[in-house]
Design goal:
Blueprint: E1 2-7, H1 10-14, E2 33-40, E3 46-52, E4 64-70, E5 73-76, E6 79-81, E7 91-95, E8 104-111, E9 117-123, E10 130-141, E11 147-158, E12 166-181, E13 188-196, H2 215-220, E14 232-234, E15 242-250, H3 253-256, E16 263-277, H4 279-297, E17 313-333
Parallel strand pairs: 1-13, 2-17
Antiparallel strand pairs: 2-3, 3-7, 4-5, 4-8, 6-7, 8-9, 10-11, 11-15, 12-13, 12-14, 12-16, 16-17
Amino acid sequence: MKKYIIIIPILLLLLTACTNEIPFDVKDTESKMVINALINTDCLENRIFISLTGKYDIEMINDVSVSLYVNGVLKEMPESIADSDSNSKVKAFLVKSTFKPGDKVKIEASTKDGKYHAWGEETVPDRPSIIKIDTASVRMKNKYESYSDFLRLKVTFKDIPDKDSYYRIIVENKKEYVYVIGLLDREKEEIINSYDYSFISREDVVLTDGKPTSADDEENGITTTSSNMFGIFDDSRFLNSEYTMTVSQENTYPTYFSSSNNAKRKSINVTVYLQCISKAEYYYLQALNRSIDNADDDILSEPVHLPTNINGGIGILGFSAESGKTFQVFNWTAE
């Protein structure tokens, strides 16, 4: 018998997984339909989230139906699915359709009484490809201002030619701990999986918009570089050519895996995902980056307005296509 326990940082998960539920401005004078959908073409199932704006918070919307068109043809009527949170005011609709680069996808939602009607349309981007990933172990200053080991990743890829393209890099660190519980005649495996999506982007020219820094720069307060939590970038600095991107992630396995007599396996796998994302998703995530910077930096900063590409309402419809490479950085098996 196997049991899986997944522990994932919430904010980054919401913007990396196939079940994206994303924040949006809700303080409108009149209620509007909110449609949020960041669709990953490599996921077998995606979700569309629909609600209403309210004065202080989102509101529930009732009797709403959703239609999905691909290249002008009705492809699917996504069904509403139950939310695990019984108090949620957001309706989720399951998308099972598959998409290919160049598809024009339209999502349309309306209520039975005709009071609310909104739609968005986007083109599915091309799939990027990773040429190679080189790794190295380096010593760098961590967030506690002491030095520790980091895994430095040099990710080489080629720009999609002859078009303006927008990208996102995601670094997934998956730690798996397998142990045995019970007596010999009733043993069973317990599996604990944890995921970390944090990475350091300050050393890369593209990810810092031409302003790379070091840990010492940040500590001395002389850097003006904005954080890039969501790892987004465009191809303006390497148009129609190859580029090698530098990101780092702290090695945590010596402290993460505690000693245990019933441990059976311990492993860490790192997966680098390179996504080509639609322009609307790029500018939405860019606005989220700015809002996080404002919250961390100055409570007097002007609010960041999140963009929308939904007609007749507000929200975001975005598409991404990705490629990924996985490699193992730690493995242990009991003898």
